[in-house]
């Protein structure tokens, strides 16, 4: 049983007692009701109880590239950041999760190393249409595709017509297609990103590449009547057409990431390849419009796109943006990053939790996650919203100690995380592997 003055109840905070039985929330009563439990956790005056976050965009990379990240390190990092459920992306692991055999193989590595609950995406690539329904039946939460080279050869991209075919196929069993939306032809014609100057890299991934690809996703969703989701929105130019698509009744959603909401291209030093991600961090005016899109509801939620690599792949010695791997490791830091920025803008913690827990859980069908409600999984984080700390990559749980946030002062720290009512001790993995049908 957990009791305290600041417990998130719906969209507000109130003095409450929360009773947990068999991993689920069994009672929520006003503070003073006198609930009894085998263990009682008393929140300090500066602590808030929030639902565990749900991060539906995590590249764990195991098996095959475990030196980049693995389930043990990724899920420890998640728990330390208040994330109690992740959904693992189908690529960067070897083999990629594009058939049932690859999914089962990946689960073998995950099952003994899960400190939080883990679900899985399947992949949609050229030639695997016949594998999509079996993957769905085996419990994946949907299917990811790229509209340009994915960065790894074992996960080839789809052309727009092939994406439409995948959308039509997954519609037949009411699944979701999630899309890395950048147009390959636009990027092929853009300047080359080689060298240490960040501005040159930014010009190599123009907003137009996202805008064109997102327009393709919208129209193919319209034509098929399928369900789609746009990954890691970076270009604020696309917000009006996404808003229009939603107003037209299309079943389309969109996410963005902490790095697009907190970092600025104007402040990235030359050679600082820790900041490289695709699509890229853009200008301050772009960031402000992304925040506007979040606040008005056009952008549905925030996830990490935790995409780690080894230090050598970041080309730290040369700082060449054309060579370095594109990805930011932020799984452990997301809540603090967004809360630091949100409170500066007068945005309340309840909205942050909605963006980082409730809405992603709803979109992917995790019906027992993302809220502190009766019958929901007892996934909870004790969050000290006024405590500050300095980011030190060496002290993070991510496998490789690199972050663009090194030395940044953040507000809000997760002190304790519970998954299914059990406190995460970072030694005993008690997380579960989730299938869509059991979630």
Concise description?
By secondary structure, this protein is an alpha/beta fold. The chain contains twelve helices and 17 strands.
What does this entry look like structurally?
The chain is α/β, with parallel strands linked by helices and 439 residues long. It has helices at 71-80, 100-110, 129-137, 160-171, 184-189, 198-204, 207-224, 239-247, 258-262, 284-295, 334-344, 349-364, and strands at 2-9, 12-21, 24-30, 41-42, 48-51, 53-58, 83-88, 117-120, 122-123, 143-146, 177-180, 227-230, 251-256, 301-302, 380-390, 409-419, 422-423. Strand 1 and strand 2 form a beta hairpin. The model has no long low-confidence stretch (mean pLDDT 97). Residues 48-424 form the Amidohydrolase-related domain.
Question: What labels would you give this structure?
Answer:
4-stranded mixed sheet; 21% strand; 17 strands; TIM Barrel; 439 residues
Strand order of the largest sheet: 9-10-11-12-13-14
Instruction: Kindly report how far apart the N and C termini lie.
Output: 24 Å
**Major sheet attributes:** 6 strands, parallel
Number of domains: 1
Order of helices and strands: EEEEEEHEHEEHEHEHHHEHEHHEHHEEE
Cα gyration radius (Å)? 21 Å
Low-pLDDT parts are none
Figure out the total of helices. Answer: 12
- Which percent range describes the beta-strand content? 15-25%
CATH names the topology as: TIM Barrel
CATH class: Alpha Beta
The H-level CATH homologous superfamily, spelled out, is: Metal-dependent hydrolases
Cofactor: Zn(2+)
Pfam family, one: Amidohydro_1
Subunit structure: Homotetramer.
InterPro entries: Allantoinase, Amidohydro-rel, DHOase/Allantoinase_Hydrolase, Metal-dep_hydrolase_composite, Metal_Hydrolase
């Amino acid at each position: 049983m957990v009791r305290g003055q600041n417990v998130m109840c719906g969209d507000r905070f109130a003095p409450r007692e929360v009773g947990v039985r068999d991993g689920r929330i069994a009672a929520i009563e006003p503070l003073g009701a006198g609930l009894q439990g085998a263990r009682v956790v008393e929140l300090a005056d500066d602590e808030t109880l929030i639902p565990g976050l749900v991060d539906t965009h995590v590249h764990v990379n195991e098996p095959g590239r475990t030196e980049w990240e693995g389930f043990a390190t990724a899920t420890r990092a998640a728990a330390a950041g208040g994330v109690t459920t992740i959904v693992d992306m189908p690529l960067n692991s070897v083999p990629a999760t594009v058939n049932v055999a690859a999914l089962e193989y990946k689960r073998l590595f995950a099952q003994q190393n899960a400190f939080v609950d883990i679900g899985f995406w399947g992949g949609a690539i050229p030639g695997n249409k016949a594998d999509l329904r079996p993957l769905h039946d085996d419990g994946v939460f949907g299917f990811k595709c790229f509209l340009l080279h994915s960065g790894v050869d074992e996960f080839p991209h789809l052309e727009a017509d092939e994406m439409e075919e995948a959308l039509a196929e997954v519609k037949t069993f009411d699944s979701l297609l999630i899309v890395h939306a950048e147009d390959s032809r636009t990027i092929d014609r853009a300047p080359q990103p080689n060298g240490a100057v960040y501005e040159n890299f930014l010009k190599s991934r123009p907003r137009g590449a996202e805008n064109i690809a997102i327009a393709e996703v919208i129209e193919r969703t319209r034509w098929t009547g399928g369900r789609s989701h746009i990954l890691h929105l970076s270009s604020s130019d696309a917000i009006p057409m996404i808003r229009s698509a939603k107003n037209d009744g299309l079943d389309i959603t969109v996410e963005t990431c902490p790095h697009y909401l907190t970092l600025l291209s104007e402040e990235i030093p030359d050679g600082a390849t820790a900041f490289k991600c695709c699509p890229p961090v853009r200008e301050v005016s772009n960031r402000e419009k992304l925040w506007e899109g979040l606040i008005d509801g056009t952008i549905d939620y925030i996830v990490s796109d935790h995409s780690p690599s080894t230090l050598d792949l970041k080309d730290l010695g040369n700082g060449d943006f054309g060579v370095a791997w594109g990805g930011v490791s932020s799984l452990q830091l997301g809540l603090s990053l967004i809360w630091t920025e949100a409170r500066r803008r007068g945005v309340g913690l309840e909205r942050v939790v909605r963006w980082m827990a409730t809405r992603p859980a709803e979109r992917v069908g995790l019906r027992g996650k993302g809220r502190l409600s009766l019958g929901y999984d007892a996934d909870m984080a004790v969050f000290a919203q006024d405590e500050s700390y300095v980011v030190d990559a060496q002290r993070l749980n991510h496998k490789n100690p690199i972050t663009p946030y090194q030395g940044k002062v953040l507000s809000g720290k997760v002190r304790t995380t519970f998954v299914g009512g059990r406190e995460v001790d970072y030694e005993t993995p008690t997380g579960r592997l989730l299938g869509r049908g059991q979630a």
